[in-house]
Amino acid sequence: MDPIDDVFGSMRVHTSLYARIEGSAPWGVTFVRGAAARFGYVVRGQCWLTVLGREPVRVSAGDCWTIVGGSQYSLQDHPETPTEFCYKALREHSNHVVKLGGGGEPVTVVTGWFLFDRRGAKPLIDLMPELILTPMDQERSELMQSTLQLLAVETARRSLGTDIVVSRLADILFIQAIRAHAASSGAEASGWIGALIDPRLSRAFAAIHAKVEHHWTVEELAREAGMSRSAFAARFRGSVGLSPLDYVTRWRMFRAAGLLRQGRYSIAEIAIRVGYENESAFAKAFKRVIGTTPGAYRRDGGEIGFLTTPVMLQAPDPNADGKVVKLPVAA
Question: Which pLDDT tens digit goes with each residue over 14-45?
Fold first, then answer.
C-alpha cells in the first residue's frame, strides 16, 4: 500500500480559506500562529517569506509553500519592511482580495489555510517538515503546474462556485506539495517524507500501512526492508525520529481516529482493527498519542482544532489595551 495514499485518504482535509494579496512596495503582513496548515503561491512578482524562527526566504512567481504546523509567518516586499498583523490588514478585504502597500513594485500572492482535524492528524503532522517550499526552478509535474494556474485564475475571476473550486484545488495542492518536496529533495528530504522515498525503508512503510493490525516486530520490519535489525532500527530512527514500533503505534492511532469519526464500529471493534487485543490497552495507547480517550474523541466528533465557517481569527490588538480582536478572515 502507498503510505501517501493511505495517510491523505484518512486525513480528512475539510476545506480551505484563502485571500489574494495584491501588494505594492512597501508592504508587509504577519499571519499569527493558528491551528491550520498554511499555503501560499506567488502569482507574479516576488516577495520575502519569513517563518517564525527561520531566516527569510525570497520567493518569486511560480514558487509555492506549505507551512504544515500553522506557525506564525510574514510576507514582505523586503525583510526590513515593517509588517502589520493580518487581522488589521484583512479588516477591509472584499471578495477575498486584499490590497496592501504604497504603490511601488507589485506582487500578487494567493495564500490561505488548509482546514482539517488537527487532533486526528497530529501523528502525521508531527512527522512532517514545518516548511515545504517548492521553488519555481525545480521541475514540477504538469499536474501541479496546472493546479497552481487554476488557483490563480479562480482567485482573480470570481464566479459561481469559486470558493468550493478553490477549496478543492487547495486540497490537491497540499498533496502535490508533499510529492514535489519528496521528488525535488530526493535523498536530502528529511523526516517522514525522506523515509518514504528511501528504497529500503519504503518497503517497511508499505508493509505497516498494508497491515496496521499486524503485531509487527522490529525483526519482521527489518526483513521487509532487507536489512539487519540493528541497521534498520538505526536508519529508521535517524530518518523519522521515532523507533519503528513507535511509528506503528502512531499510525494505528491515526487510523483509529478516522474509524472513531465514522461511527460505524464500537471502540472494542476498532481496537481489534488497529491491532489491540483488548479495549483497555487500545484506550491507554490512544490517550497517550492523541491526548484524549477514544470515547471523548468520538463524543467531540474529532473536531478539536477543526475549524468551521465562519472562521474567526483571534489576535492581541496592540491598540486595544491587550484586548483580543475577533474578525472573520479568509487567509
Answer: 556 678 899 999 999 998 887 677 888 898 99
Cβ partners under 8 Å of residue 129, min gap 6: 68, 181, 190, 191, 193
**Cβ atoms of 41 and 151 closer than 8 Å:** yes
Distance, CA of 209 to CA of 190 (rounded, Å): 20
Average pLDDT over residues 125-143: 69
Q: For residue 279, is pLDDT > 60? A: yes
Cα distances (Å, whole numbers) of residue 292 to 147, 288, 300, 305: 37, 8, 10, 13
Instruction: Tell which wins on pLDDT, 230 or 158.
Output: 230
Cis amide bond preceding 26, omega within 30: yes
Model-level pTM? 0.63
Task: Give the chain as a 3 state SS string.
Answer: CCHHHHHHHHHCEEEEEEEEEEEECCCEEEECCCCCEEEEEEEECEEEEEECCCCCEEEECCCEEEECCCCCEEEECCCCCCCEEHHHHCCCCECCEEEEECCCCEEEEEEEEEEECHHHHHHHHCCCCCEEEECCCCCCCHHHHHHHHHHHHHHHCCCCCHHHHHHHHHHHHHHHHHHHHHHHHHHHCCHHHHHHCCCCHHHHHHHHHHCCCCCCCHHHHHHHHCCCHHHHHHHHHHHHCCCHHHHHHHHHHHHHHHHHHHCCCCHHHHHHHCCCCCHHHHHHHHHHHHCCCHHHHHHHCCCCCCCCCCCEEEEECCCCCCCEEEEECCC
Q: Are 240 and 247 in contact (CB under 8 A)?
A: yes
Mean pLDDT of 189-218: 84
pLDDT digits (tens, 9 = 90+) for 46-63: 999 999 999 999 999 988
